[in-house]
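Section 5.1 Outputs to date
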Amino acid sequence: MRLLSFKAITLAVIVAIIFILFQYTQQENKAMPTPQNVTLHFGQQGVEDFTTYTGGNVDVQPAGMSFFDLDWTPPNLGTVSIAHGGHTLTIDNAFSVLGNSKNNNVSKGIIGISINSGLNKAEFVEPKEAYLAYKELLTRINQSGWQQYYTNSEPRISELDNLKFINEHREVIDSSYILTYEEWLNVFKNDAHQDLNFNLYLDGIILWVWLRKADENEKEEEQYMLRFSFETAGYVDRNVLESGFDLNGAALRAAHEKNVEEDLGIRSTRESELIEEGYRIKKNYETPDSWKYMQ
């Protein structure tokens, strides 16, 4: 009996020590600072990236999504490189990153990455400094191969009407065009919380960028914030379908083609309205085929 009691006590002590060590490790991992420079991929490589940087922490939601997050505290902001298909886009002054995957489609791994950052490292800067940071960012985006993107339902407005559309709708339709300093000032001069929106595409990845004038201080210095949302084209096009993630093969193809047909009708109506408003339509743009990414 004494021997059994000793073994039981010993086992209990060992279990307790393991539990304490596990809890300590979890706290250490949770408190583990994010490296200043990180590189993130999509798919299974992306899961491995986030696991490395977060120490294995993941927020698994009952709704079917898992989230991986990285954070930095000013003034030590992060530098995030998004890599896919031989392309890399580096984003500076990052506050946070959120990666997501679907729990019931593990093989796809990371399907979306969102980044919140500042346009400049400093909280407030002179207007010209903000403009130069915008110019450098757009140059980097264009040199990385990202191009203007229209969904199937969006009107193909001509690049010739880019400034007109920016001033009326705050959406860029020619991402290769960099505003002059005077044009930049004109966009933001009338509203302290004005924004610009970009829709971009590169090799199966869709990128939405929101550039927002967030604040202005008594010295007339400005603060601009950025949000980058990268999503795989396959995820985006499945997500718009009813029960899109449950469909496969011929059923998925039929649902996709039906959705494209409906989108074309929406686009035709909107283009007719914009023509009446004096806009010109771009005839030679074709939305990239996302079917190969949906399978």
